[in-house]
Amino acid sequence: MAQWPLKCKIGPSILNSDLSMLYEESQKLLDNGADYLHLDVMDGNFVPNLTFGHPVVKCLRNKLRKAFFETHMMVAEPEKWIEGMADANVNLYTFHIEPVMDEVISLCRKVKEAGMQVGLALKPGTGIEAVRQYIEHADIILIMTVEPGFGGQQFMSDMMPKVQWLRHNYPNLDIEVDGGVGLNTINACAEAGANMIVSGTAIIKSVDQKAVIASLRETVESSIHKCNV
To answer: Can you tell me which residues bind a divalent metal cation (predicted)?
Structure first.
């Protein structure tokens, strides 16, 4: 879990970038102030979309040796990809609990044994009670604020009570939000207690990525300051 005091971290999702220029787009995001890269891995099974796997992530790692990589594993069988992503030097392996409810603790252990941090992700339809017993085994909890699978969806503000509950009960926990997060929705996320912000379209499509990232950070840090005081 996070060390006190909490820190704001902005992790752009590269899903809506030009994937034929994955390295250039990723480097640009880092140059513009991104704290980490959020890499959406989809298997066409757990979600209806298909993106990329560990060979692409490893190629990107060879170009960006110091960047912090989070892979968001929107896959039906997260155990299958632990070894490959560890080999690609992924820092944080975030998987959905829904398809593996009986195996969450053993999967957390395997991810950590492979040298990665563990994130547990919840789809919008999954209640917070489903993850309560696993929180102590995770480094972050990811609350999806859209249905996973495609970028550019509308933010679901009714997910904020999940974030609020986590922040109230786990004040030191890294809480991540992902989906439809941008300048118009960051206030809700920050006030609920999220400190790790995944933003795709709002950053990627902006003419001034640096300004958007800075604005997101300022909003979150203002709320974190209130928590830390």
So the answer is: 38, 40, 72, 178
Is residue 72 part of an annotated ligand binding site? Answer: yes
| CB within 8 Å of 62: residues ≥ 6 apart | none
Over the stretch 21-46, which tens digit does the pLDDT of each residue have?
999 999 999 999 999 999 999 999 99
Catalytic annotation, pick one of 18, 174, 178, 208: 178
185: Cβ contacts below 8 Å, ≥ 6 apart: 145, 155, 157
* CA 48/CA 95 separation, integer angstroms: 16
Task: Tell me the three state secondary structure of residue 225.
Answer: helix
Crossing angle of helices 54-63 and 22-31, rounded to 10°: 50
Task: State pTM to two decimals.
Answer: 0.96
Residue 97 has pLDDT above 60, yes or no: yes
175-210: pLDDT as tens digits: 999 999 999 999 999 999 999 999 999 999 999 999
Element of type H or E holding 177: strand 174-178
Options 40, 43, 139, 174, the catalytic residue? 40
Helix (H) or strand (E) holding 121: strand 117-122
* 208 is known as an active-site residue: no
What the block records as the tokens of 164 is 């609020």
CA nearest to 169, candidates 198, 222, 133: 133
Q: Going by CATH, does the domain composed of 9-223 fall within 1.10.730.10? A: no
